Amino acid sequence: MRVLHFGSYWMGENDIVSLMVKDLHEVCALKAIDTQLYSGKNSPWVKKSPSPEHGGVNWLHDEAVRAAIGDYQPEVVVCNSGGMSFSREMHAELKQAGITTVGISLSDPDVFPSQGAHYAPYFDLFYTNAEVSLADYRRLGCEARLLPFAASPRFHRVLPAVPKKYDCIIVGHPRADRLAAVALLDKHFKVGLYGRGWKYCGLIPRGRQVNGAEQVVALNTGRTYLSFSRTVAGYINVKVGLFEAVACGTPVFTEEFAEMQKYFTYGEEIVGYNSLPELVTKLKDHLAHPEKLQALSAKARERLLREHTWQKRWEMVLEDVRQIQHR
Known about the structure:
- There is one protein chain.
- The protein is of the alpha/beta class.
- The chain folds into two domains: 2-149 and 309-325, Rossmann fold, CATH 3.40.50; 168-307, 3-Layer(aba) Sandwich (Rossmann fold).
- The protein is 34% helix and 16% strand.
- It contains eleven helices and 13 strands.
- The chain has helices spanning 16-24, 62-72, 88-96, 116-119, 134-139, 176-185, 213-219, 240-247, 276-287, 290-307, 310-325, and strands spanning 2-7, 29-34, 58-59, 76-80, 84-85, 100-105, 125-128, 144-146, 168-171, 191-194, 225-227, 252-255, 271-273.
- The strands form four sheets. Strands 2-1-4-6-7-8 form a six-stranded parallel β-sheet, sandwiched between helices.
- The chain is elongated, with a radius of gyration of 21 Å.
- The two termini are 17 Å apart.
- The model has no long low-confidence stretch (mean pLDDT 93).
């Protein structure tokens, strides 16, 4: 299957879209176009940059898309996140040409009102990272499917030579709920903080903003990894960093909520908690018994390799495409 992929990358080698593209190369004939949305310069591909007036959508230039289609002659075209979409007219043109269109959102449910709600119904298939957003898309008449986060184990991997500097690591930016957790954990454990802005919240920085290979090293520096489950807008969600930590062999602790159990089993592959005091208790217990942590990380990583890689996610997407093409 010949696939033309439009995406843009803002976090270096560990950018989600960049890793997805590398794994997509493994399952199809692919031409990947970087729309340079995050280059800091005007993108040659994007007609409009995000603004309240048009809902935060990045519409791709019809003429640029048309040229790329003509050069490559794809069977499928993908717009992967970034609030990107073809214009309504281009969607109609692609449909007329028999080319299947696939849209992907990786920041739902937060961006649904400003992005996906404006263009998702135009796509033949539209994927969201958030289970809670499926109903919103389907109410618009979309052929909406769930595309859970995953990891690329060729990139996110165990690094045996990296020392375990911290009892618990957090890779992400500070938010109100995270500050409360760190304040409590700091009383009991050696906590590693990686991300931008922690020092401005009155916390001594123990790491820094990490991208690319440094992010993989950071994920290997903890005896455990704490995954926060809330989005910026406050929704509960399964985060990509959890899968990446599992791929790096770092045992994961996260809040207990129903959706997580579709991916990992609490108590066998990851550790769940319902309050911060319970988190402290469970961290103390597991850190005192390294064999527990080793068993958790081994089982979780085995399941990830079996079910939760980006290559397997793409295989699912391409099978969905085949099914709608043969209707």
